[in-house]
């Protein structure tokens, strides 16, 4: 697959950033350029220059990055577990473009129009029809439509979120699909069927599939569902043992995802607590029916590389994944990807914490103000020295009825000590930006 490179046009980046530095209305923006392509902006556009700067970094492919090591171990497990005539049956797609349509990211996966994952507060939209993918599952339909049966999708995904040591607006996922036809699933029991007798696979529109039964989809037989569930769970438990050791304790938790049913989450008991490591389930038959001949059943799963790497290598801060410091990266320059590694801090630098409080304009309240908008603004101004932003207090004045918010911003550089003077300078820039962008009054 052709390697895609991304860059942000500086003039466009300045234009996008103008939302934080002037009172210009969003409609004054015209385009955002990504990989030499101009995307028309509109009222949905909320992608920032800082987020665009992460495009093309591909940490999961960089030698010596812990995310790349975990990726290699997962791929190796599936290559070893699934072979046909000596060749791996799983294909790997790890350089797909992160720019996707809302159809790919939501509609093709049966995500309802009113689902909260579609909100501007959760996603980075380029415009109302295009966004930076929120999950690798966004590529599932296109790969199935191309005729693939078993594949891994690996890459960076983008979600607006809180700021702390375990959350970052860009992280990396592995998603997978394994589909089987009747002759593959029931190779030794040809009398069994994937679909219920009343389901006509040649005309699936005549049968409205239901997920009311917690055990299975109405179109599938119980035997097919249970066999797929057994395979899925065995394969994923095997993966966890390959990563965390043969004696790792685990448990399954029932879950809900719009694109699978039934669905589960897998948790492992690690470092004296239960840690969720992945979500999975039986792919909704409607998804398979929408892409062509409907003669198979499939399972799918998704997991986050950062969560696994931080647990496996005892990495305390997610921002370290982006570090270019040789003291960090050299710890992961290994020949044996299965080697036991425990991250050793290069050095520990002190935090600086400043609070920011402001009165909201009459058009906003403490409940309608979007925290993720504020987090993006702080990150754009402060960059990667922002370790955490936390809503500290909401206040409504008893007499004036004015609404006020207070946030604590924690600053820390990963490679040197910050002085309070330089933190105060950046903090002042954040104050000025929030005043200009939201018309607030600093308290």
Automatic annotation (TrEMBL):
Keyword flag Transit peptide: yes
This protein's GO CC annotations: mitochondrial matrix
GO biological process, one term: phenylalanyl-tRNA aminoacylation
UniProt cross-references to InterPro entries, sorted A to Z: aa-tRNA-synth_II (IPR006195), aa-tRNA-synth_II/BPL/LPL (IPR045864), Fdx_antiC-bd (IPR005121), Fdx_antiC-bd_sf (IPR036690), Phe-tRNA-synth_IIc_mito (IPR004530), Phenylalanyl-tRNA_Synthase (IPR002319)
Keyword terms of this UniProt record: Aminoacyl-tRNA synthetase, ATP-binding, Ligase, Mitochondrion, Nucleotide-binding, Protein biosynthesis, Transit peptide
UniProt GO molecular function: ATP binding; phenylalanine-tRNA ligase activity; tRNA binding
Catalytic reaction annotation: tRNA(Phe) + L-phenylalanine + ATP = L-phenylalanyl-tRNA(Phe) + AMP + diphosphate + H(+)
Principal location listed in the UniProt entry: mitochondrion
Domain Aminoacyl-transfer RNA synthetases class-II family profile: 70-345
EC number annotated for this UniProt entry: 6.1.1.20
Domain FDX-ACB: 347-443
Compartments, as annotated in UniProt: Mitochondrion matrix
Transmembrane annotation, as ranges: none
Function: Is responsible for the charging of tRNA(Phe) with phenylalanine in mitochondrial translation.
Membership in a protein family: Belongs to the class-II aminoacyl-tRNA synthetase family.
Name of the molecule in the record: phenylalanine--tRNA ligase
Protein encoded by which gene: 101738078
């Amino acid at each position: 697959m052709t390697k895609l490179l991304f860059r942000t046009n500086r003039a466009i980046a300045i234009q996008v950033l103008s939302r934080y530095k002037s009172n210009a209305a969003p409609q004054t923006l015209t385009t955002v350029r990504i990989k030499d392509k101009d995307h028309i902006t509109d009222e949905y556009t909320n992608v920032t220059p800082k987020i665009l700067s992460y495009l093309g970094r591909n940490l999961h492919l960089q030698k010596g990055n812990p995310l790349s090591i975990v990726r290699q171990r997962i791929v190796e497990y599936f290559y070893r577990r699934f072979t046909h005539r000596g060749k791996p049956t799983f294909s790997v797609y790890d350089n797909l473009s992160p720019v996707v349509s809302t159809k790919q990211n939501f509609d093709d996966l049966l995500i309802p129009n009113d689902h909260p994952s579609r909100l501007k507060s959760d996603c980075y939209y380029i415009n109302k029809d295009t966004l930076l993918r929120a999950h690798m599952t966004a590529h599932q339909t296109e790969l199935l439509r191309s005729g693939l049966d078993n594949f891994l999708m690996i890459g960076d995904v983008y979600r607006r979120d809180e700021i702390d040591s375990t959350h970052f607006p860009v992280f990396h996922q592995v998603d997978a699909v394994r589909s089987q036809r009747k002759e593959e699933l029931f190779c030794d029991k040809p009398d069994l069927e994937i679909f219920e007798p009343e389901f006509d696979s040649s005309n699936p529109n005549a049968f409205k599939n239901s997920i009311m039964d917690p055990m299975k989809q109405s179109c599938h037989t119980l035997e097919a569902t249970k066999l797929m569930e057994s395979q899925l769970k065995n394969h994923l438990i095997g993966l966890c043992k390959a990563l965390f050791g043969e004696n790792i304790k685990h448990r399954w938790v029932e879950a809900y995802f719009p694109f699978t049913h039934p669905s589960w989450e897998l948790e492992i008991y690690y470092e004296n607590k239960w840690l969720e490591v992945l979500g999975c389930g039986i792919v909704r038959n409607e998804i398979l029916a929408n892409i062509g001949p409907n003669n198979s059943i499939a399972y799918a799963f998704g997991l986050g590389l950062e969560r696994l790497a931080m647990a496996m290598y005892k990495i305390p801060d997610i921002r370290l994944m982006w570090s270019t410091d040789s003291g960090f990266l050299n710890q992961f320059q290994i020949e044996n990807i299965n080697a036991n590694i425990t991250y050793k801090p290069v050095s520990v630098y002190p935090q600086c914490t400043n609070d920011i409080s402001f009165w909201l304009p009459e058009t906003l309240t403490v409940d309608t103000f979007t925290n993720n908008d504020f987090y993006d603004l702080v990150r754009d101004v402060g960059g990667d020295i922002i370790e955490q932003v936390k809503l500290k207090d909401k206040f409504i004045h008893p007499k004036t009825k004015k609404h006020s918010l207070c946030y604590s911003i924690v600053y820390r550089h990963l490679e040197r000590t910050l002085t309070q003077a330089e933190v105060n300078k950046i903090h002042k820039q954040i104050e000025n930006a929030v005043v200009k962008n939201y018309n607030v009054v600093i308290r």
